Amino acid sequence: MKYYKIIDENNLSCNGGTFDWSEYLPTKNEDGSWAPGKWTPEQRVVMCKSGYHVIDAYHLLDWANAQLYECEVIGASTDKDNNKYACASVRLTRKIEAWNDKTLRLFACWCVRQIWHLLDDERTKTAVEVAERYAIGEATIEEMDAARSAARSAAWSAARYAQNQHIIEMMEIESEEE
């Protein structure tokens, strides 16, 4: 099984821990291959309390953050949901360089495009289009902020409408019961 470790942009654990991975990072060789980092000090494994936590490929998006590394592990045990593993020691073997803001943003946009036909507010569609343009360097952060604000407004409008419809339905049910 392949395991992965996700860390933040400062090389720190990002989901419940503060371990600094800086001295354990693999290094990229001139030929493009990777030299694995060193093994972390061994720890007693207690899920969500101690040990080094890693994930499998099926749960990458559940724990997404700045950096993704493939790793080797010693003493892996899984939680009851099988969505993460705690290990006695971990060695990062290579950085997944395609895991970055651009590819994650484009993937999120691709996901929305799969249900594009269900979007009924142009502000939401515009936000996705601007996010795609931003990912490839064709939109500014100001454009992103404006599109995000408009999409948020669309979401709040839809939520208010749904809430009002629910209230109306409840009032109609009450009046029928009287």
Task: Please characterize this protein's 3D structure.
With 178 residues, this protein is of the alpha+beta class. The chain folds into 2 domains: 3-95, no CATH class; 101-177. It has helices spanning 101-113, 122-135, 141-177, and strands at residues 3-7, 27-28, 34-35, 52-54, 67-74, 77-78, 85-87, 89-95. The strands form 3 sheets. A 3-stranded antiparallel sheet has the order 1-5-8, with no helix packed on it. The chain has a 3-stranded antiparallel sheet with strand order 4-7-6, with no helix packed on it. A hairpin with a 5-residue loop joins strand 2 and strand 3. Helix 1 (101-113) packs antiparallel against helix 2 (122-135) and helix 2 (122-135) packs antiparallel against helix 3 (141-177).
Characteristics:
single chain; 178 residues; alpha+beta; 2 domains; three-stranded antiparallel sheet; 3 helices; 8 strands
Count up the domains: 2
Question: Which whole number gives the mean pLDDT?
Answer: 88
Q: Per the principal axes of the C-alpha atoms, what is the gross shape?
A: flat
Main sheet attributes: strand count, strand direction, barrel closure: 3 strands, antiparallel
Which parts are unreliable, with pLDDT below 50 for 5 consecutive residues or more? none
- Estimate percent helicity: 25-40%
Class per helix and strand makeup = alpha+beta
List SSEs in N-to-C order: EEEEEEEEHHH
DSSP summary, beta strand count? 8
Q: Report how far the terminal alpha carbons are from each other.
A: 63 Å
Please state roughly what percent of the residues sit in beta strands, choosing from under 5%, 5-15%, 15-25%, 25-35%, 35-45% or over 45%: 15-25%
Q: How many DSSP helices?
A: 3
**What is the CA-atom radius of gyration, in angstroms?**
22 Å
Main sheet: strand order: 1-5-8
